[in-house]
Write a structure and sequence with these properties.
The chain is mainly α. Among the domains are: 61 residues, Orthogonal Bundle (434 Repressor (Amino-terminal Domain)); 133 residues, no CATH class. Helices cover 73% and strands 0% of the residues. It is built from 22 helices and no strands. The model has no long low-confidence stretch (mean pLDDT 89). This is Helix-turn-helix transcriptional regulator. InterPro entries: Cro/C1-type_HTH (IPR001387), Lambda_DNA-bd_dom_sf (IPR010982). GO terms for molecular function: DNA binding.
């Protein structure tokens, strides 16, 4: 965007007329009009700083330069380290590395810690933890495939989940595929890995059949007698299949799959996190909202959202899950031409889990879209400026 148009855009956001803006700068209205139309250029840095000060932004934002926080670049370095850790194959050859293998109990605790870090949306910390954890589970699996199998599947799962958040699609697919391969032969582990596969392949209609196969393989013969763990895995896979169907525009399949998942969710109840799925009635309701957004049914999604956040089960969901849902809610409000409420839930998401907004590219895009609306409140404008997306 040319600097003149950026000046005009920010001036309107600040609800200033050309005359009031000119008065604050000590310039004429004609000077402002020519700058905004691109007839007059802003070449002197001192003038640019003055304009930026009146608009309450920094000069870099006004110039359209990359003003992303330093931690965003650091996160990219961390992803490179994860890529390097995924590029080793000691377990494929079954040979020891010559280093001490982490005891199974300690390794299980480290994997649980990684999942907890993810569910609290502490993504920069998890990026730092994963390279060493992946190396440790590789060693454990190479040393004793039977003992190290669960740890390696879970480590790949949490890695795939994080990489989806960071929009590292191909790398996330590699982690999910590794989890599926390591889980082969164990229906429960395979179902666990398939949950993340569904997240990775959300845009692939073909993945739905894989998820349904895994769901019905882990489902108990009599749903009424199934364990909460089995029902949670089966229901989570049905939810993922439904979201894939929503992305493909198949609303009938969405309804059928989510209705089936809802029946299982009633038996599980809210407030549980079996196999790191957070599956329950509230989670299924949030999936209905996401599906409605994908299908372009914004008004329906908004009504369901406003009811869902009043549920008792809402506060029991992981922080990451709640913040991610608020971003979907913002998309729903945008579909109903309600930028004020879209901004409100985005600011709420930033308060709930800052990393979900600040490190997730999809969330940053929604923030930018809302902030560009003429009627967007100042709160979202400031957040967008802080993120470097405005």
């Amino acid at each position: 965007m040319p600097i003149g148009r950026r000046v005009a855009y920010l001036r309107v956001l600040r609800r200033m007329s050309q005359q009031s803006f000119a008065d604050r700068l000590g310039k004429s209205k004609s000077w402002v009009d020519k700058v905004e139309r691109g007839v007059r250029s802003l070449e002197r840095m001192s003038t640019i700083r003055e304009v930026a000060a009146v608009l309450r932004v920094d000069a870099a934002t006004l110039l359209g330069r990359d003003v992303q926080p330093v931690e965003v670049a650091e996160l990219g370095d961390g992803v490179a380290r994860i890529r390097a850790a995924l590029s080793t194959y000691p377990m494929a050859f079954g040979r020891p590395t010559g280093r001490e293998v982490t005891p199974a109990g300690r390794l299980a605790r480290e994997v649980r810690h990684a999942w907890t870090t993810y569910q609290h949306a502490r993504y920069p910390l998890l990026v730092d933890l994963l390279p060493a954890l992946l190396t440790e589970v590789h060693r454990a699996h190479a040393h004793d495939p039977a003992v190290g199998r669960v740890a390696v599947v879970q480590a790949y799962r949490v890695t795939a989940a994080l990489l989806v958040k960071l929009d590292e699609g191909s790398l996330a697919w590699l982690a999910a595929d590794r989890a599926m391969s390591a889980a082969t032969g164990d229906r429960v582990l395979l179902a666990c890995a398939a949950v993340q596969l569904g997240q990775v392949l959300r845009a692939s209609a073909r993945a739905k059949s894989v998820l349904l196969a895994a769901a019905y393989q882990v489902a108990p013969p009599d749903p009424g007698a199934g364990t909460p763990q089995e029902l949670s895995l089966c229901g989570s896979l049905l939810v993922q299949a439904a979201l894939i169907a929503a992305r493909a525009g198949n609303d009938r399949a969405v309804g059928d799959l989510l209705d089936e998942a809802a029946e299982l969710a009633v038996q599980v109840g809210d407030g549980h996190d079996h196999h790191r799925t957070a599956f329950g009635p509230t989670a299924v309701e949030l999936a209905r909202i996401t599906a409605a957004v994908e299908l372009g049914e914004g008004p329906q999604a908004v009504v369901r959202h406003e009811e869902a956040i009043g549920r008792e089960g809402w506060r029991w969901l992981p922080v990451e899950h709640r913040a991610a849902h608020l971003i979907d809610a913002a998309r729903a409000y945008l579909q109903t031409n309600d930028p004020a409420n879209a901004a409100r839930v985005l600011v709420q998401a930033d308060s709930t889990a800052p990393a979900e907004i600040r490190h997730r590219p999809a969330a940053r895009d929604v923030v930018a879209q809302v902030a560009r609306d003429r009627d967007a409140p100042a709160t979202i404008t400031q957040l967008a400026i802080n993120l470097g997306v405005l």
